[in-house]
Design brief:
single chain; Arc Repressor Mutant, subunit A; Rossmann fold; three-stranded mixed sheet
Length: 279
């Protein structure tokens, strides 16, 4: 394997890891796997950091190496995340979303964000492309950076709302919406979910398993009779229980996927009234 293949393999290894990788652990893995001496391994990692492929992250006093998002990064077949001030030569079917570095969740790094994007992409590209240019809407519960609501709008949803209980997230999401010039189509708000009244064509919730179960009545209430829900934030071992819970009466699972220890699902609303099944 030549050095270019080794570089690519290292980047893929870091991106696919279910655990945070320390520099020491990565150095040992590379040295053992590719029979490199330690000085060559250190130089290779230093070069990957210098070229913006990897970067150092600090958490609870420990240092890790993670994929760098200080450049445009493709997170699905059609969606590319890009920090402000960068350029990207996009393909005809690509959508570019600019995300400012910030504290809010949803920069594209986490598997649940990527899985949610893939679920939204599946729904709007393969199942409901007819929603394009129609009066359809999205609600993003726990919007974080606003990334998922913006992906939905980029791929065909006309308008929507992102809500979050964290004022910092609401502020950062609003900035990202303005940065992408979607402020006429998306509203970011701290409104509590109980106060949201209209139903939506698509409801997105990238939240942990207990929250998704707790929000089940609200997801039913807020999803149009012929609408869809995109859920993520649960583990593969939690998936069956959560899907059994949601599909017992009001939803049908159309798509599900796992990535690096996390899961997501796309659900179709199948009941409009108690006892009435949509055909």
């Amino acid at each position: 394997m030549d050095i270019h293949q080794i570089r690519k393999a290292i980047i893929e290894h870091v991106a696919a890891s279910a655990f945070k990788i320390t520099p020491r652990h990565l150095e040992k893995t590379i040295t053992d796997t590719y029979s490199l001496d330690k000085s060559r391994t250190k130089a290779l990692l230093k070069d990957l950091v210098a070229q913006g492929e990897l970067e150092y992250a600090y958490e609870f006093g420990s240092t890790y190496l993670v994929p760098s998002f200080n450049k445009p990064v493709r997170i699905s077949a059609h969606v590319v995340i890009m920090p402000p001030g960068h350029q990207y030569s996009q393909a005809p079917d690509d959508v570019i979303i600019q995300i400012k570095p910030g504290a809010a969740f949803g920069g594209g790094r986490h598997p649940t964000t990527r899985l949610s994007v893939k679920g939204i992409e599946f729904l709007l590209k393969e199942v409901r492309p007819d929603w394009l240019n129609k009066d359809c809407s999205v609600l993003d519960i726990g919007t974080g950076s606003g990334i998922l609501a913006m992906v939905a709008v980029c791929l065909g949803i006309k308008k929507g709302i992102g809500i979050d209980i964290d004022p910092c997230a609401v502020a950062e999401a609003g900035e990202n919406v303005a940065l992408n010039d979607y402020q006429h189509r998306l509203t970011m708000s701290g409104t509590k979910i109980d106060a949201i009244n209209p139903s939506f064509s698509m409801v997105i919730a990238n939240l942990r398993y207990p929250s998704l179960k707790k929000l089940y009545p609200q997801v039913i209430r807020l999803t149009d009779p012929d609408g869809w829900a995109v859920l993520s934030g649960f583990r593969p071992h939690e998936k069956q229980d959560l899907l059994d819970f949601y599909t017992a009466r009001y939803f049908e699972c159309i798509w599900a996927a796992d990535q690096v220890g996390w899961s997501a699902a796309v659900l179709k609303r199948i009941f409009t009234k108690k006892g009435e099944h949509r055909k």
